[in-house]
Structures are given as C-alpha cells and as structure tokens.
Design a protein that fits this description.
The complex is a heterodimer. In chain A, 73% of the residues lie in helices and 2% in strands. Chain A is mostly helical. Chain A is globular and about 55 Å long. By secondary structure, chain B is mainly alpha-helical. In chain B, 54% of the residues lie in helices and 0% in strands. In chain B, helix 2 runs antiparallel to helix 3. Chain B is globular and about 40 Å long. Classes of the chains: A mainly alpha, B mainly alpha.
C-alpha cells in the first residue's frame, strides 16, 4: 500500500466519472435505449461538479491568496487564458471539420440559452468557468483589502452571496433544464472550494474550523442541489474528504495510473468525446460501454503523454542548446 | 533540433519518466522546478506560487516533490526553492 494526496485522488475520480458517464449514458443509452442493466440504472453523474469544487479550492490556493491586487488579477487572467484558449481552439476545430457554426458557441456564451453544442466536448464547463473568472477578475481586486484582512470571513461571505444567487432566482422564475448551465448555479460550488481552503489552511488548524467548514458544505449543498440526484453526494463526500483527509491509502500499483489521470484531467475533459467519435467511425456501434469508456480514456491519455513528453524534451533541448552556446559566446565579449 | 538524436532520446526518457518506468532520479529541487514550470533559471528565494505555479502545474509539481522528498511538505507551494532544498538535504543527512 501507498498513500496519495487527496486532491489528486479526487481529481482523478471526478474525471473518470465524467468519461464513464458520457460513455454509457450518451452512447450506450442512445443505442440500446435502456440503462437498466448498468448499476441498476444508476449513473455516475456528478464528477463535473466535484471538478468545479476542486477548481475553486485550487483557485483559493493559487489566485485568491495573492495579497497584491495586481498580482491576483494577472494570475486570474493567466488561469482564464489557460482554460479558454485550448477550449476555444477546439470549438473552432469542430466548426471546421463539421462545417457548422454558431456565434454564441464561438463567443462562449451558448450556455445561457441552450445545452446544445456543435463541439464534441462538454463546452458548458469551460464556458461557465471562463464567465466566473471574468466576473472575479473585475470584482475581486475591489474587495482585496477585506479579503486580506479577514480571509475566513471573506470566504464565508462569498459562499453566502453565491448560495443566494443560486437559490433566489428560482423563486421568481422556473428554470427549465436547458437553462441549467448558468454561472449563478455553479458559483457557489467554486466559492465552497474557497471556504474549504480557508478553513483547512490557517495557522491554527483547529477541529472546530473543520467542523464549521463541514457544516457549511452540507448546508450549501442541501440548499442548492436536489437530493434525488448524484451531484449532491459527490460534492458532500468530496468536500468532506478535502476537509478531513490530507491523503488516502491506495494499492501501490494504482498510484502511477491515478497520478497520470489526475495530471491529464483537462486533456481528458476536452478530448474524450472526440475519442468516442473516432471509435464510432472505426467500428460503428460494435462496442459496449466499457470498451467505449476505455477508448475514451486511452486516446486523450496518449495525447497528453506524448504532448507533455514533447514539450518537456523540447524545453530541455532548448536549455541544453543555450548552455552549449555560452562558452562560445563568452570569448567574443 | 526537433529531429536530432538527442531530442528523440530526451522525448523517450521523458515518456518513461512520466510512466515511472525504469529509474529516473531527479537531480534536485532546482531541476524539478525547471522541468515542471519549463523555466530556464530558478530563483532560490522564490516559491512555486511566486514563480507562476498554478492549479494546472500543481499536480505535476506535487507528484515530483513527493517522489524526490518521500512526502509532500505542508504548505509546500509557499516554500522557497532554498527551503525545499534544505528539507531534501535534511532528509538525506538523516
């Protein structure tokens, strides 16, 4: 047995659930019109909301914690670009190969009007994250002094406001399913990550802070998510694990695959559906949901492995080349 | 440079290192920072966060550190390269 960091383990589990869920729900169900023989009809729906929670936690760790407003702004912009640019390029790629176009999808705002999309990946997620980051880019620097002075209180205030943003509109308007991917319905998950980070990373990491964070987690989830669907359980169990555990024991042979899956999360998210399309082209409908799941994992993982090794070796070669050129350049000075 | 023997060798070495196949002992905290953040030079007084580390490079960095140090130090993202090197030397001495 060995141990693995809880953040890494949760990230891997969340993205595996996203790929699995899409593999059998969207494809298997489309073909066989039943999911009764898969986990007694249960889905693994909800990995995406756990990813949102982890994004919020990491945002608190790397962006929100920057004390200087200009530095925080720059880091938010950098993060937004690293999500937006690959997603945008992939959207354009699908427009080109499918000979289709939608202006709202190109502008990353289609989630406001429909769940439909042209691109073969869950575009709503990068759309929602980019929209949230844009608002935070504008708002957070104004609140920077308060955030620096009262980090715990600030995170709780942000959660409270975002829970209200999620709950209050539903009193005035019946939101249909196709309008569900609005940023106001996800911001609370993001700020819940701030609360968990703030309460578990303070100088005095006391028991009562963890208990308070756990209570806030359960209360927010109960207010914003229905009990008859899985996302609430992903959020509560994942959140409790983040609050109470630093690491978890796993069989040693699983550590490398889990670590690789966790590192490749974004690539898996962007490319798993594309892999489904490829398999469908190669052997139309001649596969079961587990084979589809395996293929949906394999292709993006291979892509991530090759691209990461290429980038690292290229940078290493650049460094070696610049070192080699130094002695030759020195005498000329 | 792209298709040089050295580059192709480097590519396969990196590939095997990611897959944890064979022995790929890191050559120091400094080298880990350069590798993960793709930097030419590393400032010993700066931390992962101060050098632009973010949630996307966080997983790779924490895994490399864990491999090298045997554990992930608490609050490691705020520790400077020098402090992390100190931890590694302390561990080696013990």
């Amino acid at each position: 047995m060995t141990s693995i960091n809880i953040n890494i383990l949760l990230r891997a589990l969340a993205i595996l659930s996203v790929v699995f869920n899409h593999a059998y729900l969207d494809r298997y169900y489309e073909i066989h019109h039943t999911i009764a023989d898969v986990f007694f009809g249960l889905t693994l729906d909800g990995g995406a909301v756990l990813l949102m929670l982890l994004s919020g936690y990491n945002f608190a760790q790397f962006n929100l914690s920057k004390p200087v407003a200009s530095e925080m702004r720059a880091s938010i912009l950098k993060l937004a670009k690293s999500i937006f640019i690959p997603s945008f390029l992939l959207v354009v790629f699908f427009f080109i190969i499918l000979h289709k176009f939608n202006l709202l999808e190109l502008l990353f705002v289609r989630n406001f009007v429909t769940q439909e999309r042209i691109a073969k990946f869950p575009t709503w997620y990068p759309q929602v994250i980019t929209q949230i980051l844009l608002v935070l880019y504008l708002v957070l620097p104004l609140l920077n002094p308060i955030k620096n002075k009262f980090p715990l209180l600030f995170s709780v205030g942000a959660l409270l406001v975002s829970v209200l943003l999620c709950v209050v509109p539903t009193f005035f308007h019946q939101f249909s399913n196709n309008q569900f991917h609005l940023p106001i319905f996800y911001l609370w998950i993001f700020t819940l990550g701030w609360v968990i980070y703030a309460f578990t990373n303070t100088a005095n990491n006391l028991l009562h802070k963890r208990i308070l964070a756990s209570s806030l987690l359960i209360a927010a989830a109960a207010l914003c998510l229905p009990f008859d669907k899985l996302p609430i359980y992903w959020i509560i169990l994942g959140g409790l694990a983040l609050i109470w555990l630093k690491s978890m024991a796993i069989p040693a042979f699983l550590k490398t695959p889990i670590s690789i899956v966790a590192q490749a999360t974004f690539t898996l998210f962007l490319f798993h559906r594309f892999a489904f399309e490829i398999l469908q082209k190669i052997i139309p409908d001649q596969y079961n949901y587990l084979e589809l799941f395996a293929f949906g994992l394999f292709v993006p993982l291979a892509l991530w492995l090759v691209s990461t090794a290429l980038v690292r070796s290229y940078k290493q070669a650049l460094r070696a080349a610049s070192r080699a050129s130094l002695p030759a350049a020195s005498p000329a000075r | 440079m792209l298709f040089s023997r050295q580059f192709i060798l480097g590519f396969f070495t990196e590939l095997l290192a990611i897959l944890k196949i064979g022995k790929h002992a890191p050559t120091g905290i400094d080298a880990i920072f350069k590798k993960v953040l793709g930097m030419e030079k590393v400032d010993a007084g700066k931390s992962f966060k101060q050098m632009g580390g973010d949630s996307l490079s966080y997983v790779a960095m924490s895994l490399e550190l864990e491999d090298y140090l045997g554990h992930i130090p608490k609050n490691w993202e705020n520790l400077s390269v020098a402090e992390l090197t100190g931890l590694a030397e302390g561990r080696a001495a013990a």
